[in-house]
Specification:
Blueprint (H helix, E strand, L loop, with lengths): L1 H16 L3 H17 L5 H27 L1 H18 L6 H30 L4 H30 L5 H18 L12 H20 L4 H22 L18 H26 L6 H25 L4 H18 L7 H32 L6 H23 L2 H5 L7 H18 L6 H4 L13
Helix pairs in contact: 1-5, 1-6, 1-7, 2-6, 3-4, 3-5, 3-8, 3-14, 4-5, 4-7, 5-6, 5-14, 6-7, 6-11, 6-13, 8-9, 10-13, 10-14, 10-16, 11-13, 12-13, 12-16
Length: 459
C-alpha cells in the first residue's frame, strides 16, 4: 500500500524532529527551570550537558533494546518516553532528580535514533537510504522552526508549562501516524543482555567521570580511570563470543566501518567546539544585534540541512571528506579574520564566506558520514551500528569542547580566551576529521536495480 508507506515515512521523519526538544527546547526552558529551582548559575551547563551524558550511557544498551523490541516498537516507545520526559522538566524539581531526568531524556533520544535509522533503512531501501537521511536533516530543521515559533508563543503566556505546546505539536503527529502506518516487526529478535547493559553504563559512567575530573582533580581522575578500565575489561570479557553482543566489536573489522566511526568522534567534537567558539566573535560584530545571532545560527542550520539533503541524495563516497574540508576552511577563515575594531567592515565578506563554507560543509559531512557507516554494516546489525555512531558522536560532542578550550592556554596563557585561536584549533580538528573520513559505501549499491524507488518490502 503506497499510501501507508508514505504515512510511515512521514511518521519517522517527524519523529526525528522530536530530538530538538531535549536540546534546543531545554535551552528555551532553562530560564524558568533555573528560577523555579533557585539553582546556582554554574549548574546551568551541568544541567544542559546531562542530556549528552545520557546519550553516551544509553547508546549501546538502547541499540540492543531497539533490536530486541523491533524498530516499530522501539521508535514508538522512545517517542512516548520523550513526550512525557520533556514536559516533566517544567516541574519544580531538586537538582539531583532534574539531572536524572536529563539523563533519561538522553537515553530515550538514543533509542529514538537507533530505531529510527533502522526504520529509514527498511522504508527507503539500501539504494535510497541516503535520501532518507537527507530528508531527516530537513525534517529536523522544520522541527526547529516549529519549536522556536511555538515556544516563543507559549512560554511567555503559560510559563514553563508552555513547553507542552511544542512537545505536542512535534510528537503528536509522529505518534499518531506511527501507530497507524509503521511496518510490523516480523524479524527474529535477539535476547536483551541486561547484565551487559548494566556493565556498559557502569564502565562508561566511570570513564566519563574520569575525563571530566582530569581538568580539576587529576589524582581522583586517575583513580576513577583505573576503575573504569577494570570495568571495561570485565565487560569485554562478559561480551566475548556472545551471539548478539551488546558491545558490537565484530563490526569494527568490517571494510569501511572504523574510519567513519573515528571521523564521527573527531568531527562532532570539532563541530560542537566551533559552535561554542563562534559565539564571541558574532556577539562582537559591529552592526549585528544580539537577537540576530540566533538568526545567524538558524541560517547555518538551514545551510547544513540543505547540504545534508544534497549529500544524502547524491550518496557520493567523497562527500564527507569534502564537507569537513569545507568546514575546516571556513573555520580557518573565521579564525584569521576576527571581527574586532574598525576592521569589521572589511572583514564582512570573508566572514560571510567562512560561515557559508562551515554551514555547507557541516551538512555534507554529517549526512555523508552516517550514510557511510550504516552502509558498511549489514541490515540486521543496523541498530548496533547506529548505537556505535551515537556513542562516538556523543563522546565527541562532550569531550571536544572540554579539551579544545584548554589548549589555547598551552600556547599562550594570555590568549586562553582568544576566539581566533580557539577557532584555529577547531579548524585543525575538522581537518583531522576530514582525513579520517572514508566512505563505507559500496558503489554497487548505488547502481542497484530500483535505485530510484523506495523499498518494496511489505508494510
Amino acid at each position: 500500500m503506497p499510501e501507508r508507506r508514505v504515512l510511515a515515512i512521514i511518521a519517522v521523519l517527524t519523529g526525528f524532529g522530536v530530538t530538538v526538544l531535549p536540546t534546543t527546547g531545554m535551552a528555551f526552558l532553562m530560564p524558568w527551570v533555573m528560577q523555579q529551582g533557585a539553582y546556582p548559575v554554574s549548574t546551568a551547563a551541568v544541567i544542559q550537558s546531562a542530556h549528552t551524558h545520557g546519550l553516551i550511557l544509553g547508546a549501546l544498551p538502547m541499540a540492543a533494546l531497539a533490536a530486541r523490541l523491533g524498530p516499530r516498537h522501539g521508535f514508538l516507545a522512545a517517542l512516548l518516553a520523550l513526550t512525557g520526559l520533556v514536559p516533566t522538566a517544567a516541574l519544580p524539581l531538586d537538582l539531583v532528580p532534574l539531572l536524572g531526568l536529563r539523563l533519561a531524556q538522553g537515553i530515550a533520544t538514543a533509542l529514538l535514533v537507533c530505531a529510527g535509522w533502522s526504520l529509514l533503512r527498511r522504508l527507503f531501501g539500501e539504494a535510497r537510504l541516503g535520501l532518507g537521511l537527507g530528508l531527516g536533516e530537513v525534517a529536523a530543521l522544520l522541527a526547529l522552526l516549529v519549536l522556536q515559533m511555538s515556544a516563543g508563543f507559549a512560554l511567555p503566556r503559560f510559563g514553563s508549562l508552555g513547553i507542552l505546546v511544542p512537545t505536542l505539536l512535534l510528537a503528536g503527529p509522529s505518534l499518531f501516524l506511527g501507530l497507524l502506518a509503521l511496518p510490523k516487526d516480523d524479524a527474529p529478535r535477539p535476547r536483551f543482555d541486561g547484565l551487559g547493559a548494566v556493565l556498559s553504563v557502569l564502565c562508561f559512567g566511570l570513564l566519563l567521570a574520569a575525563a571530566v575530573l582530569a581538568a580539576i582533580r587529576p589524582v581522583m581522575a586517575l583513580l576513577v580511570l583505573n576503575l573504569g578500565l577494570m570495568g571495561l575489561g570485565l565487560w569485554i570479557w562478559q561480551q566475548w563470543r556472545r551471539p548478539a553482543p551488546l558491545l558490537p566489536l565484530d563490526l569494527l573489522p568490517r571494510p569501511g566501518f572504523a574510519w567513519p566511526l573515528a571521523a564521527a568522534l573527531v568531527g562532532n567534537g570539532a563541530l560542537t567546539a566551533a559552535d561554542t567558539a563562534l559565539m564571541p566573535p558574532l556577539n562582537a560584530l559591529d552592526g549585528l544585534l544580539q537577537d540576530s545571532v540566533g538568526i545567524v545560527f538558524l541560517g547555518l542550520a538551514a545551510l547544513s540541512a540543505g547540504a545534508g539533503f544534497t549529500a544524502g541524495r547524491s550518496g557520493a563516497p567523497r562527500l564527507p571528506r569534502i564537507g569537513m574540508g569545507l568546514a575546516a576552511a571556513g573555520l580557518a577563515a573565521l579564525a584569521v579574520v576576527p571581527p574586532e575594531g574598525g576592521e569589521t567592515a572589511r572583514a564582512w565578506p570573508i566572514l560571510a564566506l567562512g560561515l557559508l563554507a562551515f554551514g555547507i560543509g557541516r551538512g555534507l559531512f554529517v549526512v555523508g558520514n552516517v550514510l557511510a557507516l550504516l552502509r558498511a554494516a549489514p541490515p540486521e546489525r543496523n541498530a548496533a551500528a547506529a548505537g556505535l555512531f551515537v556513542l562516538a558522536g556523543g563522546l565527541g560532542t562532550l569531550l571536544g569542547p572540554l579539551y579544545l578550550v584548554q589548549l589555547p592556554a598551552l600556547f599562550d596563557a594570555t590568549k586562553a580566551n582568544s576566539s581566533g585561536l580557539w577557532l584555529g584549533l577547531t579548524a585543525g580538528a575538522a581537518l583531522v576529521a576530514a582525513l579520517l573520513s572514508r566512505s563505507g559505501t559500496d558503489p554497487s549499491v548505488d547502481a542497484a536495480p530500483g535505485g530510484g524507488r523506495l523499498s518494496r518490502e511489505p508494510v
